[in-house]
């Protein structure tokens, strides 16, 4: 919902800021006061094309900023798609600045955006009726969704089944396409996979093998150094030499000396026992060192074999994975793919049977959806026909044109679409004797707005665009038709925020919020201003609309009467 609109330096507007309310917001003012400027400004933040001629004379740039409340609205998903994180409180701010030099600067919640982003987002926020470019109902692609929403639960349930089955159908087609590709490509793929599988299998890799090989290479590469070190340790601890005694002999002598005095004091005997324990431990260590030394044998041939094995593993890692585990996993996938291709003919045959079965099932559901759409279309046509009749378009005819495409393509396949096999378009014949034609072909702005109002009245509960703007809706109507238009707008405003630019008193009287647009001249400058008016001012404005510049007691009384009738209608209809 639109909450606030700020406009600077557009046409006659220097700067205005208005807060828009819920329900029906009416904008009135004398001809030429600048009502169309408000609509042009709203179109600017909806991503519509702008002319630099809109910039106020004497200024080099203009800007529009709109604040919306979108919490709980499906707009949040669209914001994330275009890279804007929604605010927690649901506030959405869209701004656009344009200059005489032709530069455009767009922002969404302060983040730079493109005009196309504004257009995409704007189409979900506001529906403008009166200028064809913005009307959602003029976009034929939206008609099928509107009809389905009107058809409600039955169609939606069928569509859910259809959508799930369509995903499966496309997956099967892709699988067949990948398996039944070009024969030469398949043969090349088979040869390549066979080579990879053989290469990995011949290597007979074992998990952890590379780590163990690196350890062995490290030992063999340093065998002489290790033997020399272990021999030195052995000599120092156990054997000794001509120059000095071994640690073992020295420790044995020390124990003997302690034993010789152990009878003099028992503490020397205890020390001797502890040293004997150390000697026993030293025996074990010396034996281990001797075995390690004797087991090391430098073998250039073995080292060369280890180096070659390590090189092989490194090459395989570069091709198939960073670890032996990854290489073996690649092998499993390659074998599975190889088997799948080898058996592809058999698999393709099975998939083709499944595709045909799924296609027939899809066609069946699409046919059911078509039947339900036709049922919903009949009801929709009747209801919109009644609305058009009440809007004094008694000869108008509304038609939901539904085409069902049961033809197959050159591959003998149905042309399944996301929504089934239908193409849906709303057609209208405004007057007797005129042929049915697309909504976009309606020439009269007044007719178009009333047609849109009739359709919106019926689809109000299923159309999720929160804000509707009606411009030129009162062109060419008066009396009973004008009253019905006013009542329809009031009814729609129960479920949507509505902004309406009007010259009709009947519509203005239904307003929940009434804004008056005025043009003032001073110091050789003309400015347009807009303000929300109170009850007394509203009565005067209604009287002005009824009687022109000269407001009399009669026009004031008339204004008071239709305001009273409007209030009663809103109470009776529950819109108060």
TrEMBL record:
Tell me which Gene Ontology terms the entry assigns under biological process: DNA recombination; DNA repair; SOS response
Q: Which UniProt keywords apply?
A: ATP-binding, Coiled coil, DNA damage, DNA repair, Nucleotide-binding
Give every RecF/RecN/SMC N-terminal domain span: 1-521
UniProt cross-references to InterPro entries, sorted A to Z: DNA_recomb/repair_RecN, P-loop_NTPase, RecF/RecN/SMC_N
Q: One GO cellular component from the entry?
A: bacterial nucleoid
Q: Domain of life of the organism in this record?
A: Bacteria
What start-end ranges are recorded for coiled-coil regions in this protein? 374-408
- UniProt-recorded Gene Ontology molecular function terms: ATP binding
Q: Name one Pfam family in it.
A: SMC_N
The family classification in the record reads: Belongs to the RecN family.
Q: What does this protein do?
A: May be involved in recombinational repair of damaged DNA.
Question: What protein name applies here?
Answer: DNA repair protein RecN
Output the lineage of the source organism: Bacteria, Bacillati, Bacillota, Clostridia, Eubacteriales
């Amino acid at each position: 919902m639109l909450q606030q609109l700020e406009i600077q330096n557009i046409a006659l507007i220097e700067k205005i800021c208005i807060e828009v309310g819920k329900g029906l917001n009416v904008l009135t003012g004398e001809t030429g006061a600048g009502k169309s400027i408000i609509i042009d400004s709203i179109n600017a933040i909806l991503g519509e094309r702008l002319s630099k001629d809109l910039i106020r004379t004497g200024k080099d740039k203009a800007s529009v900023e709109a604040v919306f409340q979108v919490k709980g609205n499906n707009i949040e998903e669209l914001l994330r798609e275009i890279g804007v994180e929604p605010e927690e409180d649901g506030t959405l701010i869209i701004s656009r600045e344009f200059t005489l030099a032709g530069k455009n600067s767009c922002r969404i919640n302060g983040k730079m955006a493109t005009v196309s982003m504004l257009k995409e987002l704007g189409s979900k926020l506001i529906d403008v009726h009166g200028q064809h470019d913005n009307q959602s109902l003029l976009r034929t692609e939206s008609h099928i969704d509107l009809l389905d929403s009107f058809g409600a639960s039955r169609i939606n349930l069928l569509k859910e089944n259809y959508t799930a089955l369509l995903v499966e159908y496309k997956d099967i087609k892709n699988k067949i396409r990948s398996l039944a590709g070009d024969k030469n490509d398949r043969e090349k793929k088979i040869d390549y996979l066979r080579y990879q599988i053989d290469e990995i299998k011949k290597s007979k890799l074992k998990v952890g093998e590379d780590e163990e090989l690196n350890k062995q290479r490290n030992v063999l590469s340093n065998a002489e150094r290790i033997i020399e070190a272990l021999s030195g340790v052995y000599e120092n601890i156990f054997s000794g030499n001509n120059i000095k005694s071994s640690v073992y002999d020295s420790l044995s002598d020390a124990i003997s000396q302690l034993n010789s005095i152990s009878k003099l004091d028992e503490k020397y005997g205890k020390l001797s026992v502890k040293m004997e324990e150390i000697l026993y431990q030293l025996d074990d260590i010396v034996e281990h060192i001797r075995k390690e030394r004797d087991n090391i044998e430098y073998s250039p041939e073995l080292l060369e074999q280890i180096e070659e094995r390590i090189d092989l593993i490194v090459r395989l890692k570069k091709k198939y994975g960073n670890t032996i585990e990854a290489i073996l996993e690649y092998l499993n996938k390659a074998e599975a793919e190889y088997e799948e291709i080898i058996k592809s003919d058999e698999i393709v045959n099975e998939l083709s049977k499944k595709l045909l079965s799924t296609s027939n099932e899809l066609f069946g559901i699409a046919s059911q959806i078509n039947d339900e759409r036709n049922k919903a279309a009949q009801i929709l046509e009747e209801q919109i026909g009644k609305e058009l009749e009440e809007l004094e378009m008694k000869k108008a005819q509304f038609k939901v044109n539904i085409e069902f495409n049961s033809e197959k393509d050159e591959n003998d396949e149905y042309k399944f679409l996301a929504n089934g096999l239908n193409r849906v378009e709303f057609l209208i014949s405004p007057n007797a004797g005129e042929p049915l034609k697309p909504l976009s072909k309606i020439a009269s702005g007044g007719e178009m707005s009333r047609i849109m109002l009739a359709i919106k009245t019926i689809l109000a509960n299923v159309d999720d665009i929160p804000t509707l703007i009606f411009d030129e809706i009162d062109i060419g109507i008066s009396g009973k038709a004008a009253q019905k238009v006013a009542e329809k707008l009031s009814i729609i405003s129960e479920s949507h925020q509505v902004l309406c630019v009007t010259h009709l008193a009947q519509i203005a009287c239904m307003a929940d919020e009434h804004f008056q647009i005025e043009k003032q001249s001073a110091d050789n400058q003309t400015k347009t201003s807009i303000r929300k008016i109170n009850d007394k001012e509203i009565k005067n404005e209604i009287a002005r609309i009824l009687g022109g510049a000269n407001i009399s007691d009669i026009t004031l009384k008339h204004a008071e009467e239709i305001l009273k009738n409007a209030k009663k209608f809103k109470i009776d209809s529950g819109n108060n």
